[in-house]
Design a protein that fits this description.
alpha/beta; single chain; 34% helix; Rossmann fold
C-alpha cells in the first residue's frame, strides 16, 4: 500500500501549484492541511483561508483545519522573528502528528514556498522531525516562468489582498493574466514588487484550475486604507 502524503494548502496560487504538481507526479495526497491565522502571520497565508474548504471540495480531497484557538500569531514582547516563526509552526506540527496517527504515517508534505528561506527552512526541519519527505516544486524557480506555467495550465487566480507601493485598490479582485503579469514585471523593476508576491506584496486565491472539478464563484466587498487592502467574501459557491 502506498504511504499517504499531505499538502499544506491555503487555496492561494503557490500552495495550489505545489498540490497540482504533486498530483501530476502521482503522489498520493490524502489530506489538505489549512492553517487559519488571526491577524498577520510570519509563516502562513492569512486572507480568506475559509475558502480552502470549498476548494478542497472541488479538488476532492478532505481538508484538515487548524484554527486560531490552537495557537497565536501575534508578536510577543521582545520576541525575535525567528522565535515567532518557530512558535507559529508548533500548531502545524501538532496537527501533522495527529494526522500521522490517523493515517498510519505521513510519507511526505507539499509546500508552496518560492524564495522564503525563513519559511522553507522551518518546514524542512519539521518534516525531518516527522520523518517525512518535503516536495516544494516552486522552490528557487524563476518567478515569471512559474507564473506563466500557472497561466498555461489553466489556473484562474484572483488577487485577494495587497500590501505594496504600486498595488492600489484596483488590484483587489483582479485576475492574474498576461496584462497583470506585465504590470507586475514593471513594478518589480521600478519598485521591487515580487512578481509572485513572495514578500507579502499580494495574496491570491485560485478559483479554478485543472486540479479542480468545479470553479468557485465569489461575491465580495473590498477595503483599502491607501496602503493595504483586501477583499472580504460575502458569498462563495461551486459552479
Amino acid at each position: 500500500m502506498t504511504e499517504p502524503w499531505v499538502s499544506l494548502f491555503s487555496g492561494g496560487k503557490d500552495s495550489s501549484w505545489a498540490l497540482y504538481r504533486a498530483m501530476e507526479r502521482g503522489l498520493p495526497i490524502e489530506r489538505l492541511v489549512t492553517v487559519h491565522p488571526e491577524g498577520d502571520s510570519y509563516m502562513y497565508h492569512t486572507p480568506e483561508t475559509g475558502l480552502a474548504t470549498l476548494a478542497a471540495e472541488s479538488i476532492g480531497i478532505d481538508c484538515h483545519d487548524v484554527y486560531p484557538d490552537d495557537f497565536e500569531t501575534g508578536a510577543r514582547p521582545h520576541e525575535a522573528s525567528g522565535e515567532r516563526g518557530d512558535r507559529e509552526l508548533e500548531s502545524l506540527e501538532r496537527a501533522l502528528e495527529t494526522l500521522a496517527d490517523e493515517l498510519g504515517t505521513i510519507a511526505g508534505v507539499t509546500a508552496g514556498a518560492v524564495e522564503s528561506e525563513y519559511q522553507t527552512s522551518r518546514i524542512e526541519a519539521m518534516c525531518d522531525r516527522l520523518g517525512a519527505e518535503l516536495f516544494a516544486p516552486l522552490w528557487q524557480e524563476d518567478p515569471r516562468e512559474l507564473a506563466d506555467a500557472m497561466m498555461d495550465a489553466g489556473f484562474e487566480i484572483l488577487v485577494v489582498q495587497v500590501a505594496a507601493d504600486g498595488l492600489d485598490e484596483s488590484w483587489l479582485g483582479r485576475t492574474l493574466d498576461a496584462d497583470a503579469l506585465a504590470e507586475l514585471e514593471t513594478l518589480n523593476e521600478e519598485r521591487g514588487v515580487h512578481i509572485l508576491g513572495e514578500g507579502g506584496e499580494f495574496e491570491t486565491f485560485v478559483t479554478d484550475g485543472p486540479h479542480m472539478d468545479r470553479a468557485i464563484e465569489l461575491e465580495y466587498e473590498t477595503s483599502f486604507d491607501g496602503l493595504r487592502g483586501r477583499i472580504r467574501v460575502t458569498d462563495a459557491r461551486l459552479v
